[in-house]
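<context>
A single protein, sequence plus fold
<sample>
Here is the protein in question:
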Amino acid sequence: MSRTNVQFTDNEFIEGLRSGDNIVLSALYKKYYNIVLKFIVNNSGTEEAARDIYQEAVIVLYEKAQQPDFNLTCQLQTYIYSVVKRLWLKQLKNNGKTFLFKDDDENEVVDVTADFSEYQEKEKEIEKMNKSLMQLGEPCSSLIKDFYVLKLNMEELAEKYGYTNADNAKNQKYKCLQRLKRHFFEKSSIEQDLKL
């Protein structure tokens, strides 16, 4: 039997990605594409967007497979679907769209609630961090964003914020970070106390 018709197991897919096996890669693209296409089209996307997102998801999986300590702790379909969901969620947010995800009614897709709730927890943390950042005030809020998001270096920060040199910008960034940490962790501990 030709290898192109072989049904690979989840572990064979991972091993094939590790070794750069093109037949495995091609089989992987075919196997889950329709699930991804259906999900993206059902959630404000196009066929072209589905192709792009699926390719990104396969790249994420490929990069993970290269890590020696990577072990698949769920079905491969679940893993790919949750990565696709996160990537599409991010893209919709970046495009400023509001949305409700529609999952496949026929249960072709495995439940990814556990994976997605973990992602939502991280999103909540990021949201809390953003709130803390907004309440930090200027120039700290902008300075931290410029350094971590826009990746400006110390010389660029010094010039932008009128500091005499890069060292002064570095000191200011450090002070701002300390204030942000204090604000974030105090807020988190207050919220924890309120839950008790």
Summary: Residues 127 and 133 are 10 Å apart (CA to CA). Residues 166-195 form the longest helix (30 residues).
